[in-house]
Amino acid sequence: MELLTGEYRNTLDEKGRILFPAKLRNELFGESEKNVLIVTQSFDRCLWLYTVDEWKKLSSKIMETASPFNKQNRLVLRSLIAPAQEVELDKAGRLSIPQSLRDYAGLTKDCLILGINRYMELWDADVYASYLEQNEEDLKDAAEALSEISF
User: What is the pLDDT of residues 39-87, one digit of tens each?
Assistant: First the structure.
């Protein structure tokens, strides 16, 4: 799989479907007949979208290290693993976002899909703008912490 990057704006229709960008569809699925993504909650009021293979890798690593006897582990399992749902793109290339996940992320009409290497994020456009504004100083600090990376 090539690296997924880009910022794509689309609208959520009244049935909770969003047109998935053709560039990402081609990158993820090519000529495959079954176009399935795993959609789950993230930790920033957005949704994470994974291919089935990438989700298996991530969820397996989490399940190998998480103990149901640890309070913090249970919180992660309940917040990330439990709400995950397999969603198939329809023939028109739309992804139908389950109501519970739309509610969690506050998805209304204008949405944003971000390609972040091996996974994607789905945000309500207004929620994302607010997130960026609220975290502007943290972003500067995080970028500064990466100053030892050289090209």
Answer: 999 989 999 999 999 999 999 999 999 999 999 999 999 999 999 999 9
Q: Hey, which residues does 48 pair with through a beta bridge?
A: 40, 121
| Rounded Cα–Cα distance for residues 11 and 19 (Å) | 7
Q: Residues 83, 128, 138, CA angle at the centre, nearest 5°?
A: 100
Q: Rg for the chain (alpha carbons), in Å?
A: 16
Residue with tokens 């994302």: 128
Amino acid at 10: N
With 0-12 / 13-18 / 19 or more C-beta atoms within 10 angstroms meaning exposed / middle / buried, residue 40 is buried
- Joined together, the tokens standing for residue 67 give 């103990």
For 23-70, give the DSSP string. Answer: HHHHHHHTT-S--EEEEEE-SSSSEEEEEHHHHHHHHHHHHHH--TTS
| CA 40 – CA 87 distance, rounded (Å) | 10
> By the 8 A CB rule, do 39 and 87 touch?
yes
Sequence-separated (6 or more) residues with CB below 8 Å from residue 93: 19, 20, 22, 25
